[in-house]
Specification:
single chain, 136 residues, alpha+beta, 5-stranded antiparallel beta sheet
Length: 136
């Protein structure tokens, strides 16, 4: 589902699973996809420095918005073997970790976005559909 929709993260509660966990797949600096599966994640530290980044979500397809988040975070959780992991993340990965932990806490990016909009493709399709119904 996540890959098919070209998403970069998916939390268990998005697909109806009662677990506190998420998966993410993010390109590393050398362009290789890095896969993360984190159970019982918590963000232990947020940097004071923040920035806006456009986010979308598989829970609200076709909708995007800029969300202000910390540029760096420290995420703690368990890996697939139950081993405690602690990861320092920055940039896109930090945004994804915060986005997914928010999901697990019952929050969506649209609750934090400064402006929410649909993709241009969605708007064009709706406009085309309107024109075909009205003939205008």
């Amino acid at each position: 589902m996540m890959r098919a929709a070209r998403g970069v993260g998916l939390s268990a509660n998005q697909i109806g699973l009662p677990h506190r966990m998420f998966v993410a797949e993010i390109p590393s600096q050398d362009g290789i996809l890095k896969f993360y599966a984190v159970f019982n994640p918590t963000i232990e530290k947020y940097s004071k420095e923040q920035d806006f980044l456009e986010e979308g979500c598989l829970s609200v397809p076709g909708t995007y918005g800029e969300v202000k988040r910390s540029l760096e975070v420290v995420l703690k959780g368990l890996d697939k073997n139950g081993k405690v992991v602690k990861m320092k993340a920055w940039g896109l990965l930090a945004h994804v970790f915060q986005h997914e932990v928010d999901h697990l806490d019952g929050k969506l990016f649209i609750d934090k976005a400064r402006e929410v909009h649909e993709t241009p493709t969605t708007k064009r399709l709706q406009k085309r559909e309107k024109h075909s119904r009205t003939g205008k």
